[in-house]
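Annotators were shown the component list below and the corresponding predicted structure, then asked to write short factual statements about the assembly.
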Amino acid sequence: MMLTRQLNYNFLIQLFSVNFLLVLAACSPVDNDIRKNSIHDDSVIYCAEGSPETFNPQLVTSGTTIDASAKQLYDRLLAFNPEDNSLIPALAKSWHITHDGKMITFYLRKNVSFNHTDYFTPTRKLNADDVIFSFKRILDKNNPYHDVSGGKYPFFQTIKFSQLVNDVEKINDYTVRFKLNHSDSSFLSNLATDFSVILSAEYAEHLIKTKQKNLLDKRPIGTGPYKLKEFRSGSFIRFYRNPDYWAHPIKIEQLVYDITPINTGRLTKLLTKECDVISYPIAHNKIINHSDFNLDSVTSFNVGYLGFNVTKPPFDNILVRKAIAHAINFAAIIHIIYGDQAQLASSLLPENSWAHSKTKNKYQYSIPLAKSLLERAGYAQGFTMDLWAMPIQRAYNPNALKMAKLIQADLQHIGIKVKIVSYQWNTFLRRLANGEHDAVLLGWSADQADPDNFFTPLLSCAARYTGGNRTFWCNKDYDQLLAKALSTSELAIRKQYYQQALAIIDNELPLLPIAHSKRYQARIKTVKGQILPPFGGIDFSNVSKQVLENSSQDLAQKSKINILDETKIGDN
Amino acid sequence: MLMFTLRRLSLFLFTMVLLSILTFSLRYFFPGDMLINLSGEVNANAQRLNQLAIDYKIHQSIFSQYWQYLVNIYHGNFGLSMASHLPIKQEIVSLLPATIELSIMALTIAMLIGIPLGFIAAIYHQTKADNIILTFAIVGHSIPVFWLGLLIILIFSIQLAWFPSAGNLSLLFEIPQRTGFLFIDIILSDNPYKWQAFANALRHIILPASVVALAPATVFIRLARTAMMEVLETNYIQAVKTKGLSFMQIIYHHAIRNALIKMIRHIGLQFATLITFAMITEVIFSWPGIGRWLIISIGQRNYTAIQYGLLVLSVFIFVVHIITDFIYAALNPLARERNHGS
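Structure shown to annotators:
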């Protein structure tokens, strides 16, 4: 004890100063260097929600895979105009359709180069062979690549591509002609979707020679704005810009997908600025209120709806269906179920579809009106019904069971007793197909922007048997309108037909559209340019990064202040 | 020293045999097809399965199976990962160094903080300083590591924005893998942003290493405190005291050295605990190490990864133990003379 008192505190200070200096030296000066003239200035890190299964969008329908491949690595013959979703030239600089709509000729752009990568150096530019290879792979069962990667082309099977296209032929090096078995005006839209990418025929031949056919979809070569550098499943994807991109120069050097499946993880990485852009963010209010971040959204091409089984009484009665439409408080559903992250549906079509026109919702929330309609239908005392709620979560309906409970409460006001029914997803679908339900909460995600993709699969007579039409409603006039719409390629005329079809749905009400969900993404404000195109997927080709003049200042320090006191710094 | 070395080697050998028997027996406990669990070739066709059965000597006696198992380990033939379909060996080689880096950094932090604090507590025995340090040690020891990890991310990454929250390097830096040890790879790389990358890697390692370091640091505090108190009680310290050396001289020249030697073995023993903490911390900080990989593999029922990951990790910990034993013996002649393993 005597000893201890003799020791002065210098000893303690000496021991510690060394340790702490070591630790502190690592952090503060470093922080400044990293932001100044740093690699961050012309690179973007995107926090994605999952790993792609492949890098060829022809083979899949999964959104995550499309996001990682379609618009980054490839181009299509045509593209959608982001303003109004009409078709514009892409790899095809122009096209011509014969009068009967059965022959479509594409004139290709010259001087389009494929990606030069570590694993393949193309020797020629894009030509007709590449287009023919890309589609022959799908159409021709004898193509050496048809069965590579499983031989399944789900999107093309859904649209019956092989029944539609008779042949694809080369007219000359820059002209390709599609011969169709019958005219189909959604054909061009289908060629503009994310699935209809153009691959490199030269690369395919090269892989045949080196006996590595399976690499075609794993190590992609496309004409897109970025080229693949490295992919580690579950970890990251590294892209570099394509310096010879035909459409416009790409402003960022490096694009990295940081694969972060957990949504709190993505939010954290946004707040700490480890990611510049994140997919499907949570805590929207926090992001909106934060001066460093922007929240982007786009209405998706989907619809959540309440469908009636019109073959079962009392739902065979239009008045009953209308009464229910008036009795449900949809605004509350949007608020509670979708957390205001969806758009109240005014029709089957989302409003960014070109066939949509602004209409007022005919079925306002009104209990008295609903009651009187029910009386006219002869059900003044009400009745009991089964409402089927799908057991899984989907963007168009994040919680069908809860939605069913809200509807149950609403319908009680007009004397309808609702029993909520749910099964395991497979059983649910099977029994739905048998028509065991009275009404069902279901939805639909469109594969592409063409409006036919909503009308035909959901409500056509044929779809009663093939699966999409769970209302079992069948209307000859409606079907004729759809057929007429498909046989013309004049957008204005098609739109008229679709408006008439919408009017029929509105009158007969086989189903009640509820909501179109939105896709969200959050980004740091210095990242400029549209990333979410209105017709789905993501597209980094127009992205640039604004380098702040005071970027040598400690950005991290700024964000600290912002989180602690968001109101004080408004103009940062 | 020769006897000591032989004794350690025989211990090493026997432990390895036991360990290999244990991991070998795992194949009988995993559900599913044994061949697929062993090879990881989930999509193997009948022909391939036949070939595998021959390769693994599955239809022969259990002893030849075991021998084949040892041969495979010797050749580094660990099969394929059932999740990524990459060779397990390749995955381990790329992941283990990240865990070693994290552990070394954590061990360094734990020693730099724990040992001096422990000495101070011993020197100021039964004073306020001692009480404060002991309280810190107990609190630090009681905090669950996953909770601490989240808390630290919340404070230092999200609120203060001092350090990144995940990974070991910003993905923008493209560092080719040579040794697997990130810091060494960065220095070896010819990336123009090399030093930015180095600084970035340093920023990434500090938070997870501190989290891993906390529990061992508290153990070191208590061990160092006890060791120093024992040393201060010894006759030779009393002797130099009577010689009239100043207290500082006693501490610096006599007490610290002798107390440190007592610590070395404990540092080695702490390594197993450290790895356990590192595994959990790796999950929280998305550290691309073997611990996170192993935990994810358990979730994915990736049996090949579990079997061989476990084996490699156990061997690694054991090798560290043996090495610290040797260092201890080299520094402390007394230990070499003891007959039994303690």
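Statements collected:
1. The CA atoms of residues 71 and 539 of chain A lie 5 Å apart.
2. The radius of gyration of chain A is 28 Å.
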